[in-house]
Amino acid sequence: xxxxxxxxxxGPLWGGLAGAVVLGVVAVRDPHVPGxxxxxxxxxxxxxxxxxxxxxxxxxxxxxxxxxxxLAQNALAVGLVxxxxxxxxxxxxxxxxxGPARISGPGATTTSTGVSSTLLLVVGVxxxxxxxxxxxxxxxxxxx
Length: 144
Hints:
Blueprint: H1 3-8, H2 11-28, H3 41-46, H4 55-63, H5 67-95, H6 117-134
Helix pairs in contact: 2-4, 2-5, 4-5
């Protein structure tokens, strides 16, 4: 295989391009405008915000450099965007043959990108807890 062909088969390349397109759309199309991306089906059905409610607005604000507004919209989304950027960077470095074989410790179960299954479980639990806290009176500060 030639290096150019290897690059075209690179998961991080295509994943990065897809992510860049999505972020470009979110940066250009303002989700603060009602109906810009439709409505959250969970919020429409239950009247309760899901973990993702405010995530597009937070990402838009983050892309425009307004970290405070992004955190006010959805702090979890800001953290997940940063975690995704770190994970993609490590995946790309690993795919280029310049980094460790995996992100987790020895003997840990990992996904195809080398991310620890334990990390994915922890993120899942954090998302559920964030959602449940959002539904309490004290969680009003976490609302979109």
